[in-house]
Model the fold of this input.
Amino acid sequence: MATTSLLQLYSSPASPFGRKILLAAHCLGLADRLQVIHSDTNDPQDANRRLNPLGKIPTLQTPDGVLYDSRVILNFLDQQAPGQLFSLDAAARLKTETEAALADGIMDAAILIVYESRFRPETHFVEDFVEYQRDKIRRALHSVEASQPAYGRAAQPDAGQIGLACALDYLDLRGQLDWRAEAPSLTGWMAGFAADVPGYHATLPPGIPPAPWH
Done:
């Protein structure tokens, strides 16, 4: 049964993990239940730190307590509409959870590349570390490319597909790697996803470069 209570989502417009939650909420018809509260992870006084000891985003304040991280929040949203983000079939659910974990790994590696230049002095920038993260992204993209993906779930993507779209858009936003060169078939996948999925355009991060599907 869908929740009727207001949910407070602590996030940032650029966060691919926060965007995952927003996009999933749109797909489940729960977007009007979310109050998005901008969170600055660098601010020691940010309200999110009082809710989430890790100070990370996204964090979801529900009537029953606080949830984090994005994987847990996605599972909470799926409970409001069982079987839409994750299949009710055990084997199919594990497959989706694995695909979602791969997308999360792309995002994690991409964010670490951003942090290397943002938080480390230029004289201490470690290019080997950055290349190590890029290699993770490349391998993940090659794995997805090898599966010859085609988007075909209309307005109801699963959690893995939502994660992949957010990961690819984050790579476009920050420019850590040209994913089109690594997985060219994903351009068609993204075009199909963007055309069919509610909330895709409404949740795009500000400043993302133009693309045929943006």
